[in-house]
Amino acid sequence: MFPTVRCSFSGPLRQITPADRYVVLLDVVPVDNRRYRYAYHRSAWLVAGKADPPPPARLYAHPDTPIGADALRKQVISFEKVKLTNNELDKNGQIVLNSMHRYQPRIHLVRLGPGQNIPITPKELAEVDHKTYVFPETIFTAVTAYQNQLITKLKIDSNPFAKGFRDSSRLSDFDR
């Protein structure tokens, strides 16, 4: 996912026993039940109809977690390895989204007691001690292709996952 979602935690974290660990999860949920299209002449997103059926909800567990409360407070959690797809048949744990729909990333901080497993579905998440954080400024519209060449270039130049699209003739001697 680009740009990358990053977060940090501070303040008191409830730790019942020294064996308790925290896991940080990310999911991406629909903002509404609409499909959108981009109107270039207006430079705006417009409602284009009713949303497609939502793909199955998935939780992405940050690979550095579970960790203790002290370690969690000391580091920035970066979801730079999260990948998004529009392929509902994906078996690689990627988050599945519908193109041209609006989404909201959510961060879930889960306290795992001794013997508890990391939740892998929203139903399992509801059964554990957790707190959910939502940042309205992270709402985005999922797209599969950019029509504006400047936006395409910006994404290719800035997105670490777009290395294969970079034109090697644009690279300096140092970059090569």
Question: How would you explain this protein's 3D organization?
Answer:
It contains three helices and eleven strands. By secondary structure, it is of the alpha+beta class. It folds into two domains: 6-145, Immunoglobulin-like (Sandwich); 146-175, no CATH class. The strands form four sheets. Strands 2, 5, 9, 10 and 11 form a five-stranded antiparallel sheet that branches. The protein is globular and about 60 Å long. The mean pLDDT is 84. Keywords: DNA-binding, Nucleus.
Beta strand count: 11
Number of H/I helices: 3
Given this structure, which CATH class of the largest domain is correct? Mainly Beta
Mean pLDDT: 84
* CATH superfamily label of the largest domain: Transcription factor, T-box
CATH topology of the largest domain: Immunoglobulin-like
C-alpha Rg, in Å? Answer: 19 Å
- Proportion of beta-strand residues: 25-35%
Keywords: DNA-binding, Nucleus
InterPro entries: p53-like_TF_DNA-bd_sf, T-box_DNA-bd, T-box_sf, TF_Brachyury, TF_T-box
GO molecular function, one term: RNA polymerase II cis-regulatory region sequence-specific DNA binding
Subcellular location: Nucleus
